[in-house]
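User: Hello, can you help with two protein structures?

Assistant: Certainly.
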Amino acid sequence: MRNFKITFEYDGKDFCGWQTQAKGERTVQGEVESVLSKIFKHPLKVIASGRTDSGVHAQDQVISFKAETRMKPLEIQRAMNSLLPKDIAVHEAREVKADFHAQYSVKAKTYRYTILNRSYRSAFLKGHALFYPYPLNVTAMRRAAKVLVGRHDFKSFQAHDPLRAERQTIRTIKKLVINKEGSLIHIDVTADGFLYKMVRNITGTLIAVGAGHLPPQEVAKILKAKNRQTAPETAPAEGLCLMSVKY
């Protein structure tokens, strides 16, 4: 048995998220496992670094799986890319040590949320950035974001999902950077782990601050409350992308 690590990207707008669904919706996991099962000629399950929701993209998602094969990693990469749909592309295939686990070996992940902040929409960025046509105060957003950096209980930014409600809601945000490039605002969040819809909930709060609906100092109170009802609404999925996974 050999252990393989696959790094790949996908455009999430036509997927019902990462995880295989019982109802038969199109998912990234379903497409990847179907292709690998064809390559190795038997059903094969993979482990991902984490699940992304419907409409969320990935620039560097990572999976691992074990298989009995003589194929070289490069051969696996080429075989996958020849069979996968056009909205999934494999960057790299590597053989790794037996104890490598795509989920449990993760040290940190970085997500980026992109906002198109101008008066008119973009035909090219549709499905890849949140179109927000009203002014946003990036300085105020940065001030509010500072409160979230560090080890905290992020329960106020955890969406409810009975199927995967984490009991432990303490996470460490190692870096939270907001950059403005022309009409694009990028919110990059690096953490040791994320709660369900955590980045989208943080983004929704920062947008409320930038729009002047919420004073920056209120974010500390929301964090301390440990209550999702105290935070503004969740930002839509299309602006979110998994940028990198560190091991």
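That covers the first. Now for the second protein you mentioned:
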Amino acid sequence: MFEGVNGARRYEVAAASRIGAGPGQRLENQDNFLLIDGSGHARCLRAGRAHTLQLAGWPPGHQRLAVMDGMGGHGHGREAAESVAAGLLGIPTCLTLDELTQHLEALHRTLQGRFDALMEAGPRPGTTLTMLEIPAAGDPLLWHAGDSRLYDIAAGAVTPLTVDHVPATVLAMNGLLDEEAWRHHVHGSHAPQIAQAFILGNTLRDPSRLDDGLVGLDAATLPPWLRALPDRRALALRPDATYLLATDGFWSCRDPAEFVARWPRLFAQGDAQAGLDALFAEMEERPPVGLQPDNLTAIVLRVHAAGSHRDETALPQSG
């Protein structure tokens, strides 16, 4: 776990990535994550193992958090997620969404070329990318592609702050699904299909073909009930609130809503590391019904008023 002060807020962060939970598990962990704290200390996975390093010249107080889910149905899923984690280490700190988007789209094109050069049969690999860029002053910047998620967890509710890039969302964008049907498809059940991924490209505009580019969904493209959740936006985080960035292994089950409804209890203690430990313990000890084998990666972010606690740093654990 690490803590850092940014302006009037103190951020407490804990993270973990595991190959799965329960008796049925995948052969490898194709997820990844990246943490860069306010002193430039970074942590991610390399070859499935925890890797740490110190970034030179990192501006004090700036933080970067990201989760990636490599596409297990395609070749090189682990390598795709790992390449994005490594690429994020080389992107300079960004203060605006335009800056962040330019760097990420350049990384997307570079990695597309790298994997295309392998000249292998089958689809290009891909990975989700859901990240927060947290300047030393000002609101965090959200950037999202794929079906990993950012959640706001409060005492009585769990609210998704991202929109899944899946076929059901494409149908809703084209007026073919109403809000109730969309929520049932996306949050009431789970299907391992994706309409956009980093490196892979997207089928958001034309479901019949894969386009190389990335599309940021916004108020002009999303249906009315989702327009407040554009993929790229500044977030006003609530004091004393808990936020969770996670890959879809946590809701790859028969009734995702039932399992997600347990989260306020799991995070009730308020401590980021305790909440993270409780989430993974719940997956092992009381897994959701119909849990599918999948990797599990989560970053827990707690927001406090600056000065409410002394700073201390300890590395997050990864299995």
